[in-house]
Amino acid sequence: MDKRVCEHCGVEYKPWVKTQRFCSRNCNRRWWDKKTGRVIQLTIPCICEYCGVWFYVGDRRRGKYCSVGCRNAKKYSPIFYCKNCGKVMSKDINYCSFSCQYGFSNKCNNCGVWFSGINGGDSCSRECDKDKEKEKERSYRYAINRHRETVTAVNCAECGIAYTPLYGNKRRVYCSDECSKRRGRRIGKALRRARKRGGKYESVDPLMILERDNWKCQSCGIKTPKGLRGTWEDNAPEVDHIIPLAAGGWHVNYNLQCLCRKCNQEKGDAVEGQLILFAGVECNA
């Protein structure tokens, strides 16, 4: 085809097709003013997001890419930048050259000095590392002291001793792991027995049953002190099933009662006592 003159910029060009009127896509991207019927010139400069070349578009539109090739390349082949100089790279690597890799590419978080990033890290020297660790220790001590001033002491749900929760663990209910495990073993032992029998059961704390009965034997009426629990004394408090598990009883609140050790041994697996009315019980089968 013969050369033509661009209708926009007046430059001679060789067309690709017969209907081509402009020398480039930039010249083809023109806007017509509906009021005056004139062509608005391409006056807004833009930078291509892929190749970084300046190009011009109409004043009513801003472009992202200078050509379709750059748009497709950005879409289907991502660009990677050097961490030191910002140069565009085709491979997924950190630096474009050895000079950028072993040059002053990192900034110290402590003193702000640029240093070589060969070994990585956030500090330029061991002195900055020590200063950083000291600053962390000072902030940690300040947080602990602040925590002690603001948090009040609470009572342990197991032993009742007043304690202050540790810093960073404010939701603890027990003063130590031993108290937590002790309560879990106390509740889990009875649950395992109930599961073996196949009856209904629920999570019941024996201490709650003893407190409900005011630490008093429901058979003979004598007091069973809390300090004697777990001993071999006759008046030691024990939790008993009114209807034994061997007789098809359930491990629920209203089937449990406080008995002294002597009465519990005499009762054995007999059914003695009155079931306690306890509304709103949810059991597991």
Name its key features:
two-stranded antiparallel sheet, alpha+beta
Task: Please tell me about this protein's structure.
With 285 residues, this protein is an alpha+beta fold. Among the domains are: 4-78, no CATH class; 98-150, no CATH class. It is built from 7 helices and 14 strands. It has helices at 25-28, 68-76, 98-101, 126-150, 177-197, 206-212, 261-267, and strands at residues 4-5, 12-13, 31-32, 39-40, 44-47, 54-57, 80-81, 88-89, 104-107, 114-116, 154-155, 162-163, 237-241, 256-260. A hairpin with a 6-residue loop joins strand 3 (31-32) and strand 4. The termini are far apart. The model is unreliable at 277-285 (pLDDT under 50).
Task: Give a concise summary.
The chain has 285 residues and is an alpha+beta fold.
- End-to-end distance: 90 Å
Classify the helix fraction into a percent range.
Answer: 25-40%
pLDDT averaged over residues: 76
Query: Could you give the order of strands across the largest sheet?
Result: 1-2
Strand content: 5-15%
The major beta sheet can be summarized as: 2 strands, antiparallel
Mass-distribution shape? elongated
How would you spell out the order of helices and strands? Answer: EEHEEEEHEEHEEHEEHHEEH
